[in-house]
Structure to design on (229 residues):
């Protein structure tokens, strides 16, 4: 499932619950002969039941989004390191040898021009070696850079972006980030439910609302803001 579809599902999950809760708080015509105290008890019972069911549903939704997130992370790793998806022990040993080769190469040269040449060649010949070089170069990046080093790392980042574009990794990373954002929002919603709230708005949703919509939902929006930290 695409991240966009999951966000839509998340919106429906919250809005449907809000509607059910608001309806549950309204006295029903068949209760007209009941005492006020008994009606309050009936409403409290219905509201509590709905809250329990929603908390369970929200928890299941959060778990499903986490699975999509992990699957996307795994897909990215498999594209960057094709050998990582192999179950053959010899293939996994080969991957470790390739990583060691990248480590040895970078340990034996400080010539940035030579490193760039090695990256360009690897990008077209071996994803495993290219990704190993990239990860090691990024891990060794100094906190303070000279002007030449700044330019070097810019060119390395450009090569990485080109590689990701060719391999469709850029699209996968966008999906990954969207799933990660949704996991965070689902966790915030679950906390809001535990605190007894019947609705929750994400920051991006509030930013896209018209002023009239903000005014109409001011209390719910204000409550939601405390969970954005």
């Amino acid at each position: 499932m695409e991240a966009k579809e999951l966000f839509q599902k998340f919106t429906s999950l919250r809005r449907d619950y809000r509607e059910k809760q608001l309806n549950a708080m309204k006295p029903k015509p068949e209760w007209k002969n009941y005492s006020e105290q008994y009606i309050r008890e009936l409403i409290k019972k219905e509201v509590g039941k709905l809250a329990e069911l929603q908390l369970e549903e929200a928890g299941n939704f959060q778990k499903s989004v986490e699975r999509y997130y992990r699957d996307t992370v795994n897909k990215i790793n498999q594209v960057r390191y094709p050998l990582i998806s192999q179950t053959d022990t010899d293939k996994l040993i080969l991957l470790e040898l390739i990583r060691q080769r990248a480590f040895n190469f970078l340990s034996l040269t400080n010539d940035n021009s030579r490193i760039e040449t090695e990256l360009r060649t690897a990008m077209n010949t071996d994803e495993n070696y290219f990704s190993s070089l990239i990860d090691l170069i990024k891990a060794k990046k100094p906190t303070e850079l000279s002007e030449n080093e700044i330019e070097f790392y810019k060119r390395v980042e450009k090569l990485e972006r080109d590689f990701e574009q060719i391999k469709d990794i850029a699209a996968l990373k966008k999906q990954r980030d969207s799933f990660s954002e949704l996991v965070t929002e689902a966790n915030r919603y679950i906390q809001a439910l535990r605190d007894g709230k019947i609705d929750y708005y994400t920051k991006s949703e509030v930013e896209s609302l018209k002023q009239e919509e903000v005014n109409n939902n001011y209390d719910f929006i204000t409550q939601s803001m405390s969970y954005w930290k």
User: Anything to note?
Assistant: Residues 3-77+171-225 form one domain. The chain has a mean pLDDT of 93.
